[in-house]
Amino acid sequence: xxxxxxVGCGRQSTEILPPFDFENEWCxxxxxxxxxxxxxxxxxxxxxxxxPDGSAMMVFSKHNIEHLESxxxxxCLANFxxxxxxxxxxxxxxxxxxxxxxxxxxHGPERPLYRSNVYGEQHDVMALDMLFGASxxxxxxxxxxxxxxxxxxxxxxxxxxxxxxxxxxxxTVPNGLGLFAMAMKKVENNLFWEVTGRVQNMVDTPE
Length: 207
Known about the structure:
alpha/beta; globular; two-stranded antiparallel ribbon; Rossmann fold; 26% helix; 7 helices; 2 domains
């Protein structure tokens, strides 16, 4: 069984993960700092102090690195690198600062960008929510949801490379508001090539 480390999982499950064969090939380990979401491991994603070195084949991080202070991000990414097997890789989703700023300039900070349906609740998401965190969650006292930093394609690429990842590819998601990063610990014989069916080659650097 391959370990998929789902960091900052919240209440999310494998339903939102890539279409790998979880039942027969993967074991999901859910990690979150908030015990109320009932993770498998209660831990800070910046340290992953309870996760052994080289124990995961994949790290999945969806919309959580932006919740860290900027100076903590390098430590967090270095620990993503540390817990991965040499054949392992990380996938990271985070807001795209450049895309959001363009929407602010075009439409203002409070115009709804899209409708979100999270845990059965629907909310209009504004640029302000993407910059500073989901306002409805913060209003409930959930300070974990506040955003404390942001990334562009170039800054995220540089931070991942500085953390030790050999191969890094970053793309803008279709709505132009988010980034999708794939980072391989080692490029040669990485599991990423096997699970995606892509031809093994160096991935693209950001524009």
